[in-house]
Amino acid sequence: MTSSNRSQAVDVQRSYEIRTYGCQMNVHDSERLSGLLEGAGYVRAPAGADGDADVVVFNTCAVRENADNKLYGNLGRLAPMKTKRPGMQIAVGGCLAQKDRDTIVTRAPWVDVVFGTHNIGKLPVLLERARVLEEAQVEIAESLEAFPSTLPTRRESAYAAWVSISVGCNNTCTFCIVPALRGKEKDRRPGDILAEIEALVSEGVCEITLLGQNVNAYGSDIGDREAFSKLLRACGRIEGLERVRFTSPHPRDFTDDVIAAMAETPNVMPQLHMPLQSGSDAILKAMRRSYRQERFLGIIGKVRAALPHAAISTDIIVGFPGETEEDFEQTMHTVREARFANAFTFQYSKRPGTPAATMDGQIPKKVVQERYERLVALQEEISWDENKKQVGRTLDVMVAEGEGRKDGATHRLSGRAPDNRLVHFTKPDTEVRPGDVVTVDITYAAPHHLLAEGPVAAVRRTRAGDAWQKRQDAPVAKPAGVMLGLPQIGVPEPLPAAVAPGCSPG
């Protein structure tokens, strides 16, 4: 093929598949990657394509110790598929790509594109360049080229949306490599954030989740310590915005003005995800976490005083280097005192490139496993007890899509309460759509969900439900051929979005 032929539009529908690993940041980045590819003329491959696509993109995470093994295993499984499918391309992006830029193409020479966390907007151009030049393209930016929210986004939900307020992190936790891969914190201007939210609401979105690596540190980059609480209050003034959530905050930056804003802003939901990591002061110090057990429990107490029905969740790492049985018991004590609605519990694993990976006192796997099982059993008991307190309450539940795996068999629907607890409820005679709100009485509690087995008390059809219905009824537009020129990049027509905690465990 001559270069002049290569520069023409290919009048075919090239399909793409994106495989996402890691935190909500990666999930939202994948929405942007989808928007970029579809803006360049690609069409999404059917669900369950499992590599049967013209372009397969891995959006990777570097948090877990064996992240690279999983990546190279998946890449290895695609190698024979690529041999049989002429023109197929494979791209690797995200945190692991940022970290292992020099080794991915060496270990998997069939990869066509490697891009980092700071330049996701370049993916269509890099795919084109790899196709034209017939050689792998590796491009890793060392700092953010443009705030990602300026990129086109194919949002997964019509009724709930992620909204990034910052990227990067200024903390130096010894177990976490994320700051080295996503850089120092960079905040968006409040006006830009609110404009994006208002655009989403105008399209029917009724729930947004403010997203940041350290979301409540927002303002440090723009010199305003109360910027986050002001942002929450500003969200409360947006007409049509029914639910506001945020993740993940850091105890160091969780100030009284944020608690007051949560309590005094009606559409800020009574839910808080507050990473503990350890209940031991000694281990917190070794982790370089800038709070101690007393400070953490003090925050929890203040939140509960201001928001009595708040559901509080957390992240906990078991088996950090040097953790003694006494240290672990301090974590168990903190869990008993805090009474989390649920906890994301992790067995410590080395993250290459972090200080903790080379610390003395690495804990044997058997010991870590035994402690982990004790912690999970305790938290399971507390979660169930806390859920039982919901029995008899009347809750407004926003109907969700894909939350109840057994809904078809049980003739139920599922949704989220204001505090984000999962509720399964009896399917009413009246049609309800994702984004609509039902009023139900809770009759039964399990550790990880609630049941409303009686009739639905009320159904409120919403603009969010209308937006979901509009998306379902819309004809599938035939995409333009893939243009082998610069893709369209800019502020997209705002489409509605999806929901989930930040870089765990963090």
Automatic annotation (TrEMBL):
Molecular function as annotated in GO: tRNA-2-methylthio-N(6)-dimethylallyladenosine(37) synthase activity
Coarse class of the protein's main subcellular location: cytoplasm
InterPro entries the UniProt entry points to: Elp3/MiaA/NifB-like_rSAM, Methylthiotransferase, Methylthiotransferase_CS, Methylthiotransferase_N, Methylthiotransferase_N_sf, MiaB_methiolase, rSAM, rSAM_horseshoe
Domain TRAM: 388-456
MTTase N-terminal domain location: 14-132
Manner of cofactor binding, per the entry note: Binds 2 [4Fe-4S] clusters. One cluster is coordinated with 3 cysteines and an exchangeable S-adenosyl-L-methionine.
Binding site for [4Fe-4S] cluster 2: C169, C173, C176
CDD domains: Radical_SAM
Catalysed conversion reaction: N(6)-dimethylallyladenosine(37) in tRNA + (sulfur carrier)-SH + AH2 + 2 S-adenosyl-L-methionine = 2-methylsulfanyl-N(6)-dimethylallyladenosine(37) in tRNA + (sulfur carrier)-H + 5'-deoxyadenosine + L-methionine + A + S-adenosyl-L-homocysteine + 2 H(+)
E.C. numbers: 2.8.4.3
Residue intervals of the Radical SAM core domain: 155-386
Pfam families: Radical_SAM, UPF0004
Subcellular location: Cytoplasm
Binding residues for [4Fe-4S] cluster 1: C23, C61, C95
Cofactors named for this entry: [4Fe-4S] cluster
Keywords: 4Fe-4S, Cytoplasm, Iron, Iron-sulfur, Metal-binding, RNA-binding, S-adenosyl-L-methionine, Transferase, tRNA processing
PANTHER family: CDK5 REGULATORY SUBUNIT-ASSOCIATED PROTEIN 1 (PTHR43020), MITOCHONDRIAL TRNA METHYLTHIOTRANSFERASE CDK5RAP1 (PTHR43020:SF2)
Binding partners and assembly: Monomer.
Function as written in the Swiss-Prot or TrEMBL entry: Catalyzes the methylthiolation of N6-(dimethylallyl)adenosine (i(6)A), leading to the formation of 2-methylthio-N6-(dimethylallyl)adenosine (ms(2)i(6)A) at position 37 in tRNAs that read codons beginning with uridine.
Family of this protein: Belongs to the methylthiotransferase family. MiaB subfamily.
Protein name: tRNA-2-methylthio-N(6)-dimethylallyladenosine synthase
